[in-house]
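This section describes the prediction task in plain terms. A model, or a person checking by hand, is given the sequence of a single protein chain and must write out its three-dimensional structure as a string of tokens. No templates, partner chains or ligands are provided. The sample shown here is typical of the held-out split.
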Amino acid sequence: MRRVISPLVAGAVIGATAVALFSSVMAPAKAASSATYKELSVFGDVLEQVERNYVTPQKEGDLIEKAINGMLSSLDPHSSYMNAHDAEEAMSQIHGEFGGLGLQVATEGKLIKVVSPIDDTPGAKAGVLAGDVISEIDGHSVRGLALEDAVAKMRGPVNTPVRLTLIRKGADKPIKLTIVRDTISVQAVKSRVEGDVGYIRIISFTEKTYDGLERAIAKIRNEVPADRLKGYVLDLRLNPGGLVAQAVSVSDAFLDRGEIVSLRGRNKDEARRYNATSGDLTDHKPVIVLVNGGSASAAEIVAGALQDLKRATILGTRSFGKGSVQTILPMGKAGTLRLTTALYYTPSGTSIQGTGIAPDITVEQPLPPELQGRVEAQSESRLRGHIQGQSETESGSGSSAYVPPEAKDDVQLQSALQLLRGEKTDPAFPPSQEKAAALQ
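The expected answer:
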């Protein structure tokens, strides 16, 4: 079994498309200046006035937590503070099991936006779509509510209902749904055989992902003889991210050598680089990776590595463009700080922050009539306050994030199968190994 041992975790923590690094050690903090202490004194005076004179009583702990989140939200959409309860919930998601509705969410202005519903969960079954904006939870507005607070309201005991009000592009009026909570056990990897092609879908990058991928490849190889197996489709569509160590391990499963990803922060001397090890689990069979606007963070690490190293052809539409790195810093019993500390770069030295992964072969997925005008592009570059990418343009990142439930209607998947079977050709498939030599 191949594993990359690393303290790095790229994560969809509480549903946000974030790359995270769990660490209790960071560069020593500099002593605060006298000006900083003066400002903190002002904050203390304001806090005291609110506690004494505001029209309704306020809890000191709640006020301080909101103040911290206000400061962090002014930095970028992915920095935040989690109290002890929220941090525990986040860890349960990283472990691949948690309670709730199964919705991956992020902040959208002062509201909460659905990045993608997780397959076979209450949210997905109730008809929640990627791009839906949650305006109310149980009749209460979420405007201005911290992401962690909104997630906490959607989680709760199994078999209890949650009422959501959704704003959907193209819908005449808000959509009201009552969804019953359930235990969300995320199956990180799903696979099947499509005749003479192995199909593997990675739903998220949890602690179980690499093991699931290893089992999926072994199962496919057992079902289809090597001389008949045309190759693999690796489906990363609607994948909002996960553990970076798992993203590195998944990339390594298809590679023999070369840099997979590098992480670079303020201090250039502390850049981290992760390289592939020898041994391709697929025996160098052709690979096509599917991406769309719902492919973010750790999913983009994998797509970027396999694209730059010419191990796979990327097919679909432009990915989300989430290229920032968050460090998860325990704050003792008080909670956990999630702070953006770096950007990650593909093997060619390209940051996809605000630009996304551009496919080698662009294939648009048509929307069914009932969804036309109702599914908007998913994009980091559209998030208010996002960090400007080094190559970001006005067109930004992202694209539509729709995948048909039936394989026969999946134009992107069918295009990949036709290429692998030689039923159609494209200059980008297979990729040229000669062009990858300089990066390996």
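For orientation: The chain has two domains: 97-185, 189-323+343-439.
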